[in-house]
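Running this now, will post back.
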Amino acid sequence: MKKWFIAGIGAAGLLISSAAMARVDIGVAIGIPGVVIPAPVYVAPQPVYVAPPPPVYYQPAPVYRPRYVYPAPVYYYGGRHGDRHHHNKHWKHHRGPHHRHGH
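Update: finished.
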C-alpha cells in the first residue's frame, strides 16, 4: 500500500500545472536580408588538346653509280661500191681522183 501511495503522489506531481508567467517583450527589426555566402562554385578549366607533332619524312640519300655505256650499234653494209673491182684492170679508172665525174 505504501507503494501505491508513493506512485499516486508522483503522478499528482506530474499533473499539477505550474504557474504561468506572462511577460512583455519589445523588439526592433530592420527588413534587410542577412548576408548569405553561397557555396563555392567549381568551374572546370577548358580541356587542353595538344596535337601530336607532324610526322617527319626523310628522303633516302641518292645512290650514285656509274652509268652503263651502251655501245652504238654497228651496221655493216658490205663493201663500198667498186671495192669488188679493185682487181680489175680498170681499177684506177674506177677509183681515181676523177671518179664519177665523167672521165
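The mean pLDDT is 76. More later if anyone needs it.
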